[in-house]
Amino acid sequence: AEGSAYGPVHHWGQASRHPGPLYQAVSEEGPKNCQTVPSVTAHQAVPEIQILVYEGEMERAQGQLEAEMQNLEEEKNRVIEEAFIRAESEMKAVHENLAGVRMNLLTLQPALRTLTCDYNCLKRQVQDFPFMLDKAMTEAKQEICQVIGEVSSANQELLRKYKREMNLRKKCHNELVRLKGNIRVFCRVRPVCRGEHDSAENMVSFDPDDDALLYLSNKGKLMTFELDKVFHPQATQEGVFQEVQSLVTSCIDGFNVCIFAYGQTGSGKTYTMEGVAKDPGINQRALRLLFSEVTEKAPDWDFKITVSMVEIYNETLRNLLGDNQGEKLDIKMNPDGSGQLYVPGLTEFTVQSPEDINRVFELGHMNRATACTNLNEHSSRSHALLIITVAGVNFSTGHRTQGKLNLVDLAGSERIAKSGAEGSRLREAQCINKSLSALGDVINALRSRHSHVPFRNSRLTYLLSDSLSGDSKTLMMVQVSPLVCNMSESVCSLKFAQRVRTIELGNATRRQWENSSTTSSPTHDSVEVTCTHTHTLERVRDALTNEISHVC
Ligand code: ADP
Ligand code: MG
What cellular component terms from Gene Ontology apply here (predicted)? Predict the structure, then answer.
């Protein structure tokens, strides 16, 4: 519309600024016409026509211009009208919005008033808060101090009672040991193994009502042996361990304990102590139990369990957990003046996890096996000792304990020396006999409270001297083979067991035993049975048991 509106204006301008050739001719010749009038007259008709043409054009252009202006005017009015309508509708929307905002404002005002009120309230609270906090803190502190004071005095009282109870417990235990004797004797009869053909059933029999009795029928004679406990051939490793576990855990309380497996070769000593991979024996079960017990006590106690393994062969000590298997160890008196013995160079493993336990056993077993050509044969001629030390300190009382558990798989007790052995076999047999005899002598001297106990007579007793004397505890697990061919060795083992047990039945019994025994200390090969006063002993034992239950 604009283009068309200005189009004619443009032509109009052009025409006025740049007149056409006719106009030019007129203006150029103007002055000349003044001088030569006759020539002007000659051409007078032409400009008039031109003027008329121009005027006609001008009129046409003006008409166009006016039409254009008319159009423009209409266009303007239309645009204004549209803008007006748009503005009107926008205005309406704005008005509506405004009304909405007004409404909102009206509803918000009370909320604003509440908020302002809340704000002021909160502001006051915030201003007051530090004072309130201070006050509350002071009160809480006072209360806490008071409670701590009360707890602390209750704690002191408990500690005092705990210490008193501990002393009492120790006293009771010592009394119990004194009355009952600190040597227990168990017997385990192994089952007849596959491939062994023997009329075993008739040789060993048990009392269905008394698990402390064992009968041997020897050449038509029935021999009765009374021990602290007899395990049937069907007894499980678990069942056996249950009977010894209180002894094992007492070393956490600071007691020294020795558990010996005694018996002829093939009677089940290693099975009882080491067991088999699927069904471990006392050694592994004891270490695991100690480990779990000290872990349970961990919040109040800090315990350290260390393990050593030693083999005594021909009176020489070998370090089974060490690197140098050829090295012979010595037993020395601790230079700290404590009177304790120690073995310089003996490897001690600290057990921190059940995996460590497995590693220790594997290493000990491997080292023992590598040093000999036939492990079974070698192990029957040497003593294997697993020495576990449990040292603990109580966090609250500072009380310290140290106990030692010695688990000993003794060398076979069969009397080889009498069977005409020679050379190295004879020396082995002599060494075994010497150490087992020494063990019997030491036990005898201890129970008789001799001033001199011959610990030094063998490496075994010397090494174990601190675990055999004082208020330490000993368990002799006498292993018996059920085979008829092993009858005489079984009788020997049981006689040894019976003797060890009998001498431990309190002072009265001791005196009787001493009076009826030979003056010389009995040796392994000269075991005497003293069953004749069984009834007297039973009476004494019953009386003592009553007394013990009274004390406990
Ligand atoms: P020792 O160490 O006294 O020479 P072992 O422990 O080696 O005797 O036992 C000899 C054999 O009898 C082994 O084959 C062992 O597995 C088996 N044995 C011993 N006691 C038992 C038992 N209670 N249950 C099953 N087998 C046993
Ligand atoms: Mg063995």
Answer: adherens junction; centrosome; cytoplasmic vesicle membrane; kinesin complex; microtubule
The CB of 265 under 6 Å from ligand 1? The reply is yes
269 lines ligand 1 (CB under 6 A): yes
Query: Within the chain, what is the greatest distance between any pair of CA atoms?
Result: 197
The pairing of beta strand 275-276 with beta strand 279-280: antiparallel
149 labelled as ligand-binding? Answer: no
Q: Give the Cα separation of 234 and 231 in Å (integer).
A: 8
- Evaluate the CA torsion angle 332, 334, 335, 337 in order and state its sign: negative
HEC profile for 100-141? HHHHHHHHHHHHHHHHHHHHHHHHHHHHHHHHHHHHHHHHHH
- How far is 54 from 20, CA to CA, in rounded Å? 10
Query: If the chain, 552 residues long, is cut into consecutive pieces of 10 residues, what is the mean pLDDT of each piece?
Result: 40 42 43 47 74 92 93 94 94 93 90 92 92 93 93 90 82 65 88 74 83 88 92 96 93 92 95 95 95 89 94 92 86 83 92 88 84 72 94 89 95 74 79 89 80 92 90 92 90 88 42 29 32 41 53 44
pLDDT (0 to 100) of residue 544: 54
Residue with CA at minimum distance from ligand 1 atom 10: 266
DSSP state of 199: -
Cβ of 501 below 6 Å from ligand 1: no
Long-range interactions of 17-22: CB distance < 8 A, separation 24+: 22/46, 22/47, 22/50
